[in-house]
Specification:
It is a single chain. With 254 residues, the protein is α/β, with parallel strands linked by helices. It has a single domain, classed as 3-Layer(aba) Sandwich (Rossmann fold), CATH 3.40.50. The protein is built from ten helices and eight strands. Helix 2 crosses helix 10, helix 3 crosses helix 4 and helix 4 runs parallel beside helix 6. The radius of gyration is 18 Å and the shape is globular. It starts with a helix and ends in a 12-residue tail after the last helix.
Length: 254
């Protein structure tokens, strides 16, 4: 089935095609928590001059809304109401990655361990994923190029993306990175508990029935365990050039 036919079957608008490369100017970067995909995606988008979209933030924002309303993801009416609100009021700054609900910034609130855990649980629900899918695509439809990170971007949300990357790292390295991030915010962290949580979340994300976390068949797999962020960005920039998504002389490549 072609991408356009697949989009029609799912009720999607197909991504706009770039006349030079023949593909949609969307790069997906999937991978587990702590693999560095958010930082890499934001840096890559800035180098390319494209929009950065972190779809995990959409799930986190929904989880925060449900929590503040005292509602459960099993409450289908609340889910549909909040998804409709997100569709109209969710906003993400492409440069800073800051997340807004209307005028309210929720960047830090959605990054707490509690909301992260709730988002992982909410994301297992088939209705939630189905309702949020068009919201995620809507964010990038009008972009002249987007770098999108998540866990099922290349397999489910943007199977028509021109380039798909699966970024991973060892659980120990991901736990170390997350611990450093938490300490930098002034909070204390139990490294062993964090490692345990990462193993549990990996198992939950990879084992869920709906849109499990996995690399797309045509994804390029990059292990960032021993790579600096800049090295990962350069690898993906080269892939973008090889795919014809950006010219060789693109300033971001230098």
């Amino acid at each position: 089935m072609t991408h356009d036919a697949d989009a029609d079957a799912r009720g999607w608008k197909p991504l706009p095609q770039d006349p030079e490369s023949g593909g949609a100017k969307v790069v997906t970067i999937d991978g587990p928590a702590g693999s560095g995909k958010s930082t890499v995606s934001r840096t890559l988008a800035m180098r390319l001059g494209w929009q950065y979209v972190t779809t995990g933030a959409i799930y986190r924002t929904l989880a925060l809304m449900l929590h503040e309303a005292g509602a459960s993801f099993a409450d289908k009416g609340s889910v549909e109401r909040f998804v409709a609100f997100l569709s109209e009021r969710y906003r993400q700054d492409s440069r800073s990655g800051r997340v807004y609900l209307g005028e309210r910034e929720v960047t830090h609130e959605i990054r707490t361990p509690f909301v992260s855990e709730q988002a992982s649980i909410v994301a297992q629900d088939e209705l939630v994923r189905r309702k949020l899918l068009p919201v995620q695509r809507k964010v990038v439809l009008d972009c002249n190029g987007a770098v999108v990170d998540g866990r099922d971007m290349g397999t489910v949300v943007f199977p028509d993306a021109a380039l798909k990357v699966f970024l991973t790292a060892s659980p120990e390295e991901r736990a170390r990175r997350r611990a450093d991030e938490i300490r930098a915010s002034g909070r204390e962290v139990d490294a062993q508990s964090l490692l345990k949580e990462i193993h549990e979340r990996d198992a939950r994300d990879a084992g869920r029935e709906v849109a499990p976390m996995k690399a797309a068949d045509d994804a390029v797999i990059i292990d960032s365990s021993v790579l600096a962020r800049e090295d990962v960005v350069k690898k993906i920039l080269k892939l973008c050039i090889d795919q014809g998504l950006v010219p060789l002389a693109n300033p971001g490549e230098s």
